Amino acid sequence: MKGAWGTVIGAGALLAAHHLAFYEAVKHIPLGAVATIEFLGPFAIALAGSRRAADLLPACLAAGGVLLLGGGGVPLDPGGLALAAVAACCWAGYILVSSRMARRLSGGQGLALAVLWAALLSAPYGIAHAGSALLDPHVLWVAAVVAVASSVLPYSLNLEALRRIPPRVFGVLTSLEPAAGALFGLLILGQRLAWPQWLGIAAVACASVAATFLGAGKRRTSQVSARGEPTQAEDPSRTGSKHAAVPVE
To answer: What pTM value is reported for the model?
Structure first.
């Protein structure tokens, strides 16, 4: 338990800041734009520490997608963009802190405590904006549904999914988040984007897919090297051109 409480407090604080920034951003810019910019947080972590030139391609693709999103048609409020960027930073921070929390607290104990702490931190914000309306039974019922649908259920499903499918598949599926946000914003909230902005969202999603596959290849090469097996560059049998594309498993 040493250091566990610090990670729980940190994870809860990042969750609270992320959620407040995300929902405030949705007030100013379409949901698809918020989801795309927020997605850059975990995307940056995926590329962090890269030393290969090939890993710059997803980064450039994502940067181009953001440029298309910001200047591709429908004007986006700068304040909303800034809030979405804050949400991205908080989400990246939560991923790093929660990974430490998962190693120190078994099961869903750490997540439950982090969500509880995030709720306590968010309470003053809600009271300041809604006051006594927070005590309305209808408001409390809706708030409970939103809390389960936006936090408890997704995080729990993420953990279960990671236990059942490879991280690479999980990364590819997660890459659909920006497009899903834009689609829900269009169908449910009536938020429209210009076609260049849809193209920008697709570019960010494709960049994440590319980063996922490049990262998977890099991990396989590292594992082979750690076992002492010859890599493609070291194995004389793979020096020929016809063997150049043989994957290392």
So the answer is: 0.71
